[in-house]
């Protein structure tokens, strides 16, 4: 019998459920979280979202530094190179990309992008939870932490097929299946994925035959995900990248 880690005991007390669910469609397993012991810089982990204010600096032309506002569509108009898509990318990724783009107009194109003022970031949790709605994303929040903030799971929740919808740069979300049972019994702690801004976490009912259709209908009726995102799920098992 697996031994629970102490850190999971409180989570198990709130989330552990009995009962079995009917077979469900297959979705990819959610990308595992990075090891907590490995420190990372903000520029490598923070992903730009609409509403952010960024500081654009040119290393060899400091007088040209300026603040950039990320528009609701995720882009911004930059000096000399025009409109660029920024949302969904890390600060480091954007800095490297802009350095390459500015090489065509500047002799010394070294560019850095930093976060000046972040917009209010949040994730959405819905379905078979105690309280559906938006949860502020203050620091590092995992799936189980978000579920606890949503007042836990209902007895009718399908813990083996929680759906994570994650915005992608192309506009359509990626859908992932999370089996919470491995997190609760300690056998798969890596499934406790770290959430990003605008992630949508939906807990289906146990016994639902077509999870994608259920999630699609639930989102359209209950969650405010029209904030610049397009969650049009095909009610099939295929995930559109």
UniProtKB/TrEMBL annotation:
Name listed for the protein in its UniProt record: Polysaccharide biosynthesis/export family protein
GO biological process: monoatomic ion transport
Family under the similarity heading: Belongs to the BexD/CtrA/VexA family.
Cellular-component GO terms for this entry: cell outer membrane; pore complex
Signal peptide interval: 1-21
Pfam families: Poly_export, SLBB_2
The entry's keywords: Cell outer membrane, Ion transport, Lipoprotein, Membrane, Palmitate, Polysaccharide transport, Porin, Signal, Sugar transport, Transmembrane, Transmembrane beta strand, Transport
GO MF: polysaccharide transmembrane transporter activity; porin activity
Membrane topology classification: Multi-pass membrane protein
Domain Polysaccharide export protein N-terminal: 42-115
């Amino acid at each position: 019998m697996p031994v629970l880690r102490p850190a999971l005991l409180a989570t198990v007390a709130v989330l552990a459920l009995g009962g079995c669910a009917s077979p469900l469609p297959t979705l990819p397993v959610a990308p595992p979280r990075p090891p907590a012991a490995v420190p990372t810089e903000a520029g490598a982990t923070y992903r730009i979202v609409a509403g952010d204010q960024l500081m654009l600096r040119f290393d060899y032309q400091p007088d040209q530094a300026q603040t950039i506002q990320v528009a609701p569509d995720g882009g911004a108009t930059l000096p000399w190179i025009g409109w660029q898509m920024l949302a969904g990318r890390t600060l480091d990724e954007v800095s490297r990309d802009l350095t390459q783009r500015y090489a065509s107009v500047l002799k010394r194109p070294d560019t850095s992008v930093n976060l000046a003022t972040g917009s209010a970031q949040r994730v959405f949790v819905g379905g078979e939870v105690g309280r559906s709605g938006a949860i502020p994303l203050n620091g590092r929040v995992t799936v189980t932490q978000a579920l606890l903030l949503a007042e836990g799971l209902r007895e009718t929740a399908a813990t083996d097929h929680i759906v994570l919808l994650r915005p992608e740069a192309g506009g359509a979300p990626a859908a992932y299946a999370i089996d919470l049972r491995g997190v609760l019994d300690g056998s798969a702690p890596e499934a406790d994925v770290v959430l990003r801004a605008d992630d949508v976490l939906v807990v289906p009912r146990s016994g639902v035959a077509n999870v994608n259709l259920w999630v699609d209908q639930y989102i359209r009726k209950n969650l405010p995900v029209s904030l610049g995102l397009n969650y049009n799920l095909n009610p099939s098992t295929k995930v559109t990248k």
